[in-house]
Amino acid sequence: MRIIARLDVKNEHVIKGIHLEGLRKVGEPVEMAQSYYEQGVHEILFMDAVASLYDRNNLLHIIEKACENVFVPISIGGGLRTIEDVELALAAGADKVAINTGAVHRLELITEIANRFGSQCIIGSIEAKQKTDRKWEAYIDNGREPTGLDVEDWIKRLEDAGIGELLVTSIDKEGTKRGFDLELIETVNDATARPVIYSGGYGKPEHLQALGPIEKPSGIAFASVLHYQLATGDELVQAADRLDPPFEPSTEMAA
Questions:
Q1: Selected catalytic residue, list 8, 43, 48, 181
Q2: Which of 71, 85, 196, 236 has the least C-beta neighbours within 10 A?
Q3: Residue/partner pairs of 54-63 with CB below 8 Å, 24 or more apart
Q4: Per-residue confidence at 21, pLDDT binned at 50, 70, 90?
Q5: Phi, psi (degrees; rounded to nearest 5) at 141
Q6: Residue 140 · residue 100 · CB < 8 Å
Q7: 127 included as an active-site residue
């Protein structure tokens, strides 16, 4: 399971809130990205938290600077609405792009990116808010605007369009440090065969252990626990490794 440091950025600062609201400054993005890389995280995810206000992504210079000293895959999201936006993001050094609002407004964008750059560089980003029992609605604009799209249905449409993996953020759990939305994780797992990155809710090792009975996400994006130094990247990697014991082939398989 990949340990991913998530940095939501507003006006040159990493910010953090609860339920994607009440945002406060917590640090400088390039310095934090380098620190988390040195701590051993597997990937870095930069999200422009206010891209919808300006209708563009403002992180390209931050990505360029981070790439000088960070040598793990870097993803970027927020405000990527055209094939040209994606081209600029990849040219700045990003390995993958996370698309949410752009896909909701024009799903064909995902297919265009897949045809041009390959599905492996496209993350379908979904901000999920629970509406009824085991039903979630997809939101856009950093969790501010409902779309009317059922998350399970939207996942299928993103798959058909060509996404390579999913980033699912639980709006209900985001920033709370009270544990993952296990029902959401199970629902998403059942809805897709694509790799899934889950974001929102981690606060202590017991929350990782609670994943035991269900299929693990391909990755988990951590923010608060890293930003407030409640755990290091290395500690999270070790905790995740303990979830999956080493594979030991049976006698039949070994033969």
A1: 8
A2: 71
A3: 54/79, 55/79, 55/81, 56/81, 56/85, 57/85, 57/89, 58/9, 59/9, 59/29, 60/88, 60/89, 60/92, 61/92, 62/9, 62/12, 62/29, 62/30, 63/89, 63/92, 63/93, 63/94
A4: low
A5: 55, 50
A6: yes
A7: yes
Burial of 245 (0-12, 13-18, 19+ CB in 10 A): exposed
Distance of CA 230 to the CA centre of its chain: 20
Tokens for 10?
């507003």
Residue among 17, 60, 75, 39 nearest 197 (CA): 75
Distance between CA atoms of 139 and 93, rounded to whole angstroms?
A: 28
Catalytic: which of 43, 48, 127, 159? 127
Active site residue 8: yes
Type of residue found at 167: L
Closest CA to 29 of 51, 45, 52: 45
Is the pLDDT reported for residue 246 higher than 90? no
Q: Burial of 19 by CB count in 10 Å (0-12 exposed, 13-18 middle, 19+ buried)? A: middle
Q: What angle do CA 207, 4, 185 make, to 5 degrees?
A: 45
In sequence order, the β-bridge partners of residue 168 are 126, 198
User: Could you give the residue ranges of the DSSP H alpha helices within 132-221?
Assistant: 151-161, 182-191, 205-209
Lowest mean pLDDT among 22-31, 117-126, 146-155: 22-31
Asked if 69 contacts 18 with a C-beta cutoff of 8 angstroms, the reply is no
Compute CA distances 205 → 178, 210, 235, 241, whole Å. 11, 9, 10, 12
- Whole-structure pTM value: 0.92
